[in-house]
Amino acid sequence: MADIAAIADVARSVDARLAVDNCFCTPVLQKPLEHGADIVVHSATKYLDGQGRCVGGALCGTAELVEELTAYMRSAGPCMSPFNAWVFLKGLETLRLRMFEHSRGAATLAAWLVEQPGIARVHYPGLASHPQHDLAARQQKAPGGIVAFEVEGGREAAWRLIDGVRLCSITGNLGDARTTITHPATTTHGRMSAEDRAAAGIGEGLVRVAVGLEDGDDLREDLERALVGARAPRDARPTPTCA
C-alpha cells in the first residue's frame, strides 16, 4: 500500500504528476484525487464490470489532463467499443453493493486463514496485524477484496493448494463475481527477476485470492480441502473427483 497524500506532497515539490492505479479499491473504497493524486487509472475489466465480461480501462483527472489524454486517444485510437462501454456503465449500477460485499467476505476469509495450520502469514489490510492497517483505515472505506497468504512448503505446496480448489477459478484476473486464485510468482509477477520478487515480498509460497460473491462457508470449505491436500505427502493425497 502507498500513502497517497505523502507521495502527492513529494510529487508537488518537484513539479511532477502523481498517477494512482486504483483498480483494487475502485472509487467506492478509495478516491485518490481527494488525497492529492493528479490521475487515477482503472482496469475496468475488473471490479467496474464485476463479471469478467469485457476488456477496458479508464483514466480520471482534471479537465486539463483529460483533454490531453483525449487528444492522444483521438490520434492513436485506444477507444473501447460502444457495447463494452454500455456493459461497464451497467456494472457501475451495482459497484457499491459489490465492493462492500467483496470486502466483507475477504475480511472473514483472512481472519479464518490466520488460524489455519500450514499458513505462515496472511496479508490483508483489514487485519490489525497488517503493518499498514492504520493507513488503510485512513484512506479507504473498507479493506477491499484481495487476500494473499504464504503457504508453508514453498512453490510445490502453493501449487498443490491451487490445483486442489474446486469452487475458486484459477486465473490471474480479479474483481469477478467468482472468487479467483493465482500464484503471483509464476503468473502476474513471473517476468520479474527472483531478486526483485523477493524484494517485493513475493515469495514462492505466496497465493493471492480475489474474494468473490459466493457463500463464505462454501469458499472456506473449498480452501480448507485444498489446504489439507497441500500439506499431505504426494502419495497420501486423495485422488481428485469431478463435482
What descriptors fit this protein?
single chain, Aspartate Aminotransferase, domain 1, 9 helices, five-stranded mixed β-sheet, three-stranded mixed β-sheet, disordered C terminus, 14% strand, alpha/beta, 2 domains, globular, Aspartate Aminotransferase, domain 2, 243 residues
Topology:
Blueprint: H1 4-13, E1 19-21, H2 26-29, E2 39-43, E3 57-61, H3 63-76, H4 82-92, H5 95-114, E4 119-123, H6 133-139, E5 146-151, H7 154-164, E6 169-170, E7 180-182, H8 194-199, E8 206-210, H9 216-231
Parallel strand pairs: 1-2, 6-7
Antiparallel strand pairs: 2-3, 4-5, 5-8, 7-8
Give a description of the structure.
- The C terminus is likely disordered.
- This protein folds into two domains: 89 residues, Aspartate Aminotransferase, domain 2, CATH 3.40.640; 142 residues, Alpha-Beta Complex (Aspartate Aminotransferase, domain 1).
- 41% of the residues lie in helices and 14% in strands.
- The two termini are 38 Å apart.
- Strand 1, helix 2 and strand 2 form a beta-alpha-beta unit.
- The chain is globular.
- It has a five-stranded mixed beta sheet with strand order 4-5-8-7-6.
- With 243 residues, the chain is an alpha/beta fold.
- The protein contains nine helices and eight strands.
- The longest helix has 20 residues.
